[in-house]
Amino acid sequence: MNIAGLGVKELAALVCTTLEHRGIDVVLTGGSCVSIWTHNAYASLDSTL
Fold first, then answer.
1. Which of 20, 22, 32, 34 meets the CB 3.0–4.6 Å disulfide criterion with 47?
2. pLDDT tens track for 1-49
3. Do 30 and 8 contact (CB within 8 A), yes or no?
4. Which residues contact 19 (CB under 8 A, 6 or more apart)?
């Protein structure tokens, strides 16, 4: 699978789904989470790296 073109929201969903299928619960936190929930109205450096 080529993930190069995925945005932050799509990549987070892919990681969450992949881990969920393996029985691992995850929680997204930090700048990426803020960016997703605010539709990119707020961003910090940790969400752009």
1. 32
2. 789 989 888 988 999 999 999 999 988 888 878 888 888 788 766 644 4
3. no
4. 25, 26
CA 2 centroid distance within chain = 16
| Residue 16: both structure tokens together | 């969450």
> Alpha carbon of 23 to those of 10, 13, 18: distances in Å?
20, 15, 9
Q: Number of C-alpha atoms within 13 angstroms, CB side, residue 24? A: 9
Tokens of 38: 């605010």
Give the tokens for residue 6: 């995925």
Q: Measured between alpha carbons, how far is 44 from 13 in angstroms, rounded to an integer?
A: 20
